[in-house]
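Quick question, first post here. What does this chain look like in 3D?
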Amino acid sequence: MQEDNISKKKPNFPINSELRKYLRGYGRKFSADMEYDDLLRFTNSFPYYDKTGKDTLWETVYFAPSENTALNFALTGMYAQLKTGGDLSVIEHLFAERIDYCTFGNSKPFRVRIVNTLNDNFDYFYIKKADASRIYGLELEHILSPNRISYLVSGNTLIEEHIAGIPGDLFIKDQMKKKEINTIRIAKEFVKFNERCFLRLLGDMRSYNFVIDMTPDFEETHYRIRAIDFDQQSYEGKKSLYMPQFFKENNPYVQLAMQLMTPETMRQYQIEERTLIAKRIKAGKRMLKDLLDCMSHDTISTLEKKNQLKEELSKHYDNPAYLKCKNMGEIVKMSLKEMLRQNKHHTTSANNKVK
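> Answer (accepted):
Ran it through. Tokens below.
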């Protein structure tokens, strides 16, 4: 298992006019009563600990009492925009019970806990500084993965819904060795997740940047690995940083796959995932084209990283066409074209065998 060399501090890339036009056209734009920077005016904070007393690296923040009413109205309004398209009639029985702030990582998000006063049910959403590369990551996840993503952008502020699941690192610690866990299915899902990340070039998928969504069925529990951090969409130059299998934090998942699967089985699941992605591309063809056109006219990485990645992928696929790519958007487009070409070959081969 090789050691990762991921950038510890990725710059924030601004949203250009073409991407803003895309966001407006596909219903991702809204008008907010407050911006991300407004939340930085908190007056005090305390560490937030989990149920076991462990520091979560989040801080619960507090604001001047004179700001609480306006703050609550703005935050519940944001939640209504995210969940009900802006129907403010739903916010009368909602309030922002807690606001947490995380200084760990690039996005430095605020997490807002929204409580329903009628039944004490609660939900979360996140407020972040908008970053073009993260938006491309969210959109590619929405189009190419089995998961739908809900987020909105107002100016330089990004709001995202909470993605439910057990964090990948906690799943290793608390769930992996339980008898009722179907390790074969976990291994299968990790292989498919690894394939998804590499094909759409989503980096930094260490265990704490994805969650395990467990869905009980009548006979067995189903598992799905979902990315929750999209800051490293098409930024790094090293191709292995887009493969979750190469992060040491993911070793338990890799070991499961190696112990429980043959190379032929792994290949089968990779082809299955490629086939599903090909179908999603066909279903969302127009949306994907518009997104990749924006991405191909944007800068979301450095010249050095872009050149390194296109050279490594050119060698990986034995395809010199990668060397002609001018930016990360064109590299993603080439990666998806390569996948479609290979998938067509596998499908044809399978059909020929059936005949």
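Strands lie at 44-49, 55-62, 94-102, 110-116, 122-129, 151-154, 157-161, 166-167, 210-216, 221-227.
The chain has two domains: 17-131+149-161, 166-349.
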